[in-house]
Amino acid sequence: FHLDKPILFNTRFTLNHDTIRQKLAIVSGVHSTDASARIRARRALLDYGAYAVPGLLEILKPLPHSSASTETLIRDSAVYFLSFNSRRRNDPVHPDPTIEAENQTLRKWRYDLEAPEFEKKQIIAQWIEWYDRHPDRWTLTTPDKIRLFFLDTRFAHYWANLLRLDFGVSRDNEPVLVTLIGKLKYSLSLSLVSLLLAYLISIPLGIFSAVFKDTRADRVVTVLLFVLYSLPVFFVGMLLLTFVTDASPFPALRWFPVGGWQEVNDQRLTSLEQIGEIIKRLVLPVLCLTYGSLAVLSRYMRAGLLEVIQSDYIRAARARGLDEWTVVLKHGVRNGLLPILTLLANLLPAAMGGAVIVEYLFGIPGMGAWVVEAVRGRDLNVVMAVQMISTVLTLLGILLSDIAYAMVDPRITYE
């Protein structure tokens, strides 16, 4: 992802000899500075990449005569950084053998500070000869500089990768996109099913609570929903795994398999039996993902409907002698749906976030365990890809909310 490049504009092709020398003097200890300054100088030199190569080579010419001089310390540091900065980028999935062979050679052109001076000069001569052999790499025309200024940046490279759907490779050297597609089908299926169930259950509950406001039934439903809302997903998941799966200490409660949702390929089962087996493996994960949304959605539905049924047009419908349920369902529910449709923008990515915990608990081969291991191993490409998917889902939720507004309320149009 070119994270060593500048963010928006790249002016590193203007690096001069003095800037490189100053950084090397800090790193080599010629200038008395603290450790943090040396770390920043080292990081800057490495981030300069190939742009620092001409300046580093200038420091090698002419060779100093005294091995104890400060110039020698700076020169030795320049050779060290040349072995890093001179290497060219190579495709990790389909590497170019020529580039790889050259990088391996350049990696070896280093020496210890205690090495004899004649050995140092031999390696320095190799660097100078290699540099003079490739003048085209360091000669930049005006169009080249304009291109590098705008396009050789983090922002430009990141968008170029996104347009190609290239999320890089993970630490196990596998393309992130291929693995992501394979795991997204599990996570997205769980999230969409749980979201659909949450709306199908919470809307009737909200209508019931609004129609029977402040009754004993309304209070019981409210208490039960908020009790469910207060229970963490990982806690409920562990309880379900302990008591209602094949691992339960009570034989009568061994209703579901332990392993979560996985593909069933038993040839002895018919197609319907295989579907039934998959549904059994889906029940507990979907239950864990669904119950937490019920309280929020049903309370918003209740509040929205209570506000609507106090409107003038609802009183007018009642005055015409319409049945109460006809008034509520035909005239009130549509406008009462608007508040919970607004929540759709946040619930879709939130469901994906909850799916991470559920998948990890139930051993589902989705993005859950994959993301957890990526965070532990600092696999940045995987983490950034998952964050991008969450961003897309958020935008998709906002779009679906806007479209649903026009579907439930004919007064809203997008002309």
Key terms:
mainly alpha, single chain
Tell me about this structure.
- The protein has 415 residues and is mostly helical.
- Helices cover 68% and strands 0% of the residues.
- It has helices spanning 17-28, 35-48, 53-59, 70-85, 97-108, 117-133, 142-151, 154-163, 176-211, 216-230, 233-243, 271-308, 312-319, 324-336, 338-342, 344-362, 367-376, 380-408.
- The longest helix has 38 residues, at 271-308.
- It is elongated, with a radius of gyration of 32 Å.
- SS class: mainly alpha
Which residue ranges are poorly predicted, with pLDDT under 50 across at least 5 consecutive positions? none
SS element count, helices: 18
What is the string of helix and strand elements? Answer: HHHHHHHHHHHHHHHHHH
> Shape from CA axes?
elongated
Helix content: 55-70%
- What is the gyration radius calculated from CA atoms? 32 Å
β-strand percent reads under 5%
Secondary structure: number of strands: 0
Distance between the termini: 40 Å
Roughly what is the average pLDDT, rounded to an integer? 85
The largest sheet is: none
Would you summarize the structure shown here?
This protein has 18 helices and no strands. The chain has helices at 17-28, 35-48, 53-59, 70-85, 97-108, 117-133, 142-151, 154-163, 176-211, 216-230, 233-243, 271-308, 312-319, 324-336, 338-342, 344-362, 367-376, 380-408.
